[in-house]
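Hi R.,

Here's the chain you asked about this morning:
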Amino acid sequence: MLEAGAITVAERDEAARTPVRLAQRARERHAPHFARLALARRPSGGMTTLDLDLQSRVEALAPVALADLPADTDLAVVVLDVATGEVLALLGSRDVGDPVDGQVNGATARRSPGSALKPFVYAAAFESRRLRPDSVLADEPVDLAGWRPENIDRRYHGPVTAAEALRRSLNVPALVAAQRAGLARCLGVIEACGVDLPSAVASRSGLALVTGATEVSLLDLTAAYATLARDGLALAPRLYPDEPLLPHRALRAQTCRAIRAALALEPDAPDGPWWKTGTSSGHRDALAVGAWGDVAAGVWVGRFGGAGHAAYLGRDAAQPLLLDVLAAARPATPVAAR
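And here is the predicted structure, written out as tokens:
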């Protein structure tokens, strides 16, 4: 600059005497778990499906949801576009900066779904015409080779319709639905809708699968609920908009509408939100998965180490965040939890 006449000798000398201080700018770390997932699928990268504005809103909702939960609670969130299967937002943990838990992607980790697979069990029974939504089932004590399943409230509720049993997540009617449909058919429906089940799940879990005795990923589970929202057309989650759309028919539209009506906040409002919660054995996992219009979402709350806590109930720990996420993904007023 001196040679070019842009500064004087005095200015050059002053600049030389001034110490150089290097400052590292804070880097924005939006959706690192999504980024790793996308790069694992396509190492060359490219334009992804991530909606950064929605991702930011989801990231802002997470600490609010965790405020009243145990200090070491973690969470994961997945948001999908129903029409395309595109992943719009994905939060793998509460704090990616945590050198241990922050590196775990809770959206792809396999955890117990609790009762969140029950809609697909009833769907299998409806598809096989072994049950209808208005079929009456008995919620009463049963003994299955020494296993006496109970409801989460430790009570039985007598005769209920299949739709009401699903809405209230009653265990014995769901087991009856699985028996009537057949476990193999139930497993086939769950997998056809988008859930990758562990190998030998039939022999390992048996009918206890209905109450969560298996492991699935939140991403798969959300994709399966998107299948219900899509009237039975299944799509694999897409991370790049140029990935091919390869839908296949998993369920009849009539079956999906019956499931959605049973789970809807307002059964007579087909355009409103609908969802199902899940709580795993020992209160290790709290889940809520559902959809509203053109968006499906799933929330998992718990500890990556697997320790349970009484606070980890799907209805209390995961459902409020799910409803906030669904509302954040749409131009609508947040809904009140039922």
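One quick note: The longest strand covers residues 74-81.

Cheers,
M.
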